Amino acid sequence: MDRILRDKKAIFIFVAPALTLFIVVLVIPIFQMIFYSFCNYAALTPPEFIGWANYKKLFTNDQTFRIALKNSIFFMIFSAVTQQVIGLFLAVLLTNIKRGRNLFKNIIYLPCVLSSAALGLLWAFLFNPKIGINALLAKFGVRGPLWLMDSKGFIPLPMWVIAFVALWQYVGQNMMLYMAQITGISKELYEASYVDGANKRQSFRYITMPLVRPMVITSLSLNCIGSLKFFDLVYNMTQGGPNHRTEVLATELYAEGFNYFKYGYASAISVVLLIMCLAVTLIIRKAIKVETYES
Amino acid sequence: MKKKSLAAVLSAAMVMGTIVSAATPMTVMADDPEEITWMFWDDLEATQDLISLGYADVIDRFNTTYEGQYHCTPITTNLEEYDGKVNALIAAGQTPDLWICNPGPNMDVYVKAGVAADLTDILQKDNPDWYDSFTDGIFERMTYDGKIMAVPTNFAAACVYYNTEIFKDAGVEVPTTYDELIDVCKKLKDAGYTPISCSAGTAWCLSMIAGYLCDRSGVDLGAIADHTADWTDDNCIRAGERLKELSQYFQDTAAGDSNDQATANFYNGDAAMLVQGSWAIAQMNGSNPDFESRCGVFQFPGIPEENDPNRMIVKTDNLLMSASTEHQDAVIALMKMFTDEEAQKYTAEVGGKFPIIRDVEIDYNKAPAQLKYVQDIMQNVTGTLGFYNESLDSVEAGDCFDNAMVDIFLGNQTPEEAFQTVEDFYNENVWTE
Are B223 and B297 part of one and the same domain? Predict the structure, then answer.
């Protein structure tokens, strides 16, 4: 086996199927997308090269794009902070309890495996002005807000609502990642710290935190990229409305591409989204230093 | 060496298998019926809408009549996602053989791109009897440079539906002018009723009222298209102010209610009036059959000295045939079935929409009562207009108008600001061309 793995030809042959698919499904479309972003392309007619015009319009003359960019960045920051903190908190909590651990783990993780489209519709019903939460509030004489239609404020209420639903849905994923990492930390380290007089908080601060740091990079990167390209809940709960106030980059590019047939322009948004994802990943990798504590 | 060779063979087989399976079309046996697809904007299995159920009947009838020869599989989606999904299929080269489409910019795109088939010869030369069966002038909005690009299945007109019991209880009469409408709304509100049910959550519903107010205020879309008039002209601003004024009388939840919820509000007796197309008759009577006897209809009130008060918003549902379909005969057979006497009688007598063929005898005793009222109103109509969002330069321009009206309603923009937004859009995207 070792002899095969040292053979470069054999390695290439093993990698070839995945590499071929990767190129066909990902690399070629990315280059196509970059090319189309410089074109006036309506999908039904041949693309016409127009240089930087799409990008120029995007950054200088597209109010909806600015709203989508703002909302996507808000969504990324909100999700990164809340999902990481609560995910880690739940992971620490559940690794420290003996009874009911699997039950709670499954309950918290359950929304993650459900369809976002179905959940989006479900929450849209719950936040509907006539049924769900508002109907409940009305029984106590309270008039609920327009959860998904309020358009006031820098970050309008529907964006907070969607961010909350996303937190509810995906916090379990972060919890699972951190649990896997925490479970891998040797118990002897904790025992040694207790012998040395450390309390629970100190052992978390000086043992758990440094040792989960590699997972922070993975979890945070996945979290940020997932938030930037977030689509389904927004689409199913508000469709970017009212008047684009809850538009995010993914819904904006969907509308430009599929509603208005502006595939060139939608491709330019996709390129911006791709660059943002790459930049965020790079920043996270540079910003979080990982040191090896155990061999 | 053997292992290496084996690995190479297996890897190659995996890659080839993936490529071949992706590229190979499904095999069709010679005896199989010709399979065609029809795309539609409602779930035919779950819908209660009587017009949609009529369409479902046509599909069943087609599959039974042509059993072994043709077979149609409907592709359905909800209305809100319909255009996006059709566009995605077309862009992916998987255009349905036949699909339903609103008139206006969407159809313009399909026609300009050559996706929709030219039906002129099919209608006029190959099937003259079929062509002659249609009502005069019905092909006007679907004719491009003299070519007929679609076949209509019905047409509908937008009116104001009202609850006769609530009107009687509040002691109000049907208004004929905008000022009277406001007066009626005030009285209804004072009597404890919600005067108008409207959906701003589904922007086109609000936009339909805005379209009427614009038209009644003298806005000329033709002049705007030619840029001999502007969106910032006084008549547009007046229409915006009237929309703001009228929207005070909408239900509290209008901002978030969907079209279905707003319509349900009305047929459940929670609101006195509803501005809707006559397609809503099927939905109202299908969902609450008892309501039919309590539902009256009047035309959207006029504004004296500003514009002709007898113009009416109308629209047709249209069938487009794919220019690339390999099953033209099957598609034509299905289109004929959508427009035959049986389907058209159903359209009027059950669905509550107007037939698009002449010589169809409608039994108004069977037809929804509201249809007769709408037809009476149609007798006085002096001109028609399309939905504003379907009458502007592009789908995006229509959305821009819809969103501006929602912003007026929500109070995010004054009428001046909202119409300036539309004006800016036209300056950047329409008038430059």
Answer: yes
d(CA B93, CA B113): 12
Q: How many Cβ pairs closer than 8 A exist between chain A and B? A: 103
- B369: which 2 tokens? 């009562």
| Boundary (domain end) residue, out of B328, B343, B368 | B368
Q: Which of B332, B348, B368 is the last residue of a domain?
A: B368
**Enclosing domain of residue B281:** 158-314+371-430
**d(C-alpha A48, C-alpha B188), whole Å:** 57
**In a shared domain, residues B222 and B302:** yes
| B252: closest chain A residue by CA | A129
Residue of B nearest to A46 (CA): B113
Residue A191 pLDDT exceeds 50: yes
Chain B environment of A129 (Cβ under 8 Å): 252-253, 255-257
- B130 & B183 share domain: no
Q: Tokens at residue B400, please?
A: 């821009």
Taking CA atoms, what residue in B is nearest to A152? B412
Residue-wise pLDDT tens digits, A126-185: 998 878 898 899 889 888 888 998 888 899 999 999 999 999 999 999 999 999 999 989
pLDDT at residue A295 in the model: 44
Contacts of A188 (CB under 8 A, 6+ apart): none
Cα–Cα distance measured from residue A294 to residue B430, given in angstroms and rounded to the nearest whole number? 65
Residue B70 parent element (H or E): strand B70-76
In this prediction the pTM is 0.82
Is the same domain home to B200 and B275?
Answer: yes
Q: Which domains does chain A have, with CATH numbers?
A: 64-287 (1.10.3720.10)
Closest among A202, A165, A205, A208 to A183, alpha carbons compared: A208
Q: CA-CA distance, B76 to A262, in Å (whole number)? A: 24
For residue B80, the distance in angstroms to the closest alpha carbon of chain A comes to 9
Inspect the interface and report whether the beta carbons of A263 and B91 lie closer than 8 Å.
Answer: yes
Q: What is the CA radius of gyration of chain A?
A: 23
Q: Is A60 part of the contact surface with chain B (CB cutoff 8 Å)?
A: no
Question: What does the DSSP 8-state code read for residue A44?
Answer: S
Pairing verdict, β B271-277 and B143-144: unpaired
**Is A180 within 8 Å of chain B by CB?**
no
Question: Tell me: the pLDDT tens digits for B345-355?
Answer: 998 888 878 89
Count CB atoms within 10 A of the CB of residue A277.
18
Kindly state whether residues B263 and B410 are assigned to the same domain. yes
Question: Is B322 found in the same domain as B275?
Answer: no
Of A129, A147, A258, the CB nearest to B87: A258
Q: Which of A260, A262, A263, A267 to mutate to test the interface with B (most CBs of B within 10 A)?
A: A260
What does the block give as tokens for B383?
């001109």
We report the CATH number of the domain holding residue B72 as: 3.40.190.10
| Contacting residues of A for B80, CB less than 8 Å apart | 239
What is the bridge-based pairing of β-strands B143-144 and B151-163? Answer: unpaired
State whether B207 and B98 are in the same domain. no
Q: Which residues of B fall within a CB distance of 8 Å from A7?
A: 4
Name the nearest CA neighbour of B429 among A62, A43, A131, A118: A62
Number of domains in chain B: 2
Domain co-membership, B289 together with B406: yes
The SS3 of residue A100 is coil
* Residue B152 one-letter amino acid: P
Q: Look at residue B20 and tell me whether its pLDDT is greater than 70.
A: no
Residue B26 lies in a domain: no
Tell me the nearest-neighbour CA distance from A1 into chain B, angstroms.
10
C-beta of residue A169 within 8 angstroms of C-beta of residue A87: no
d(CA B423, CA B430) in angstroms, rounded, equals 10
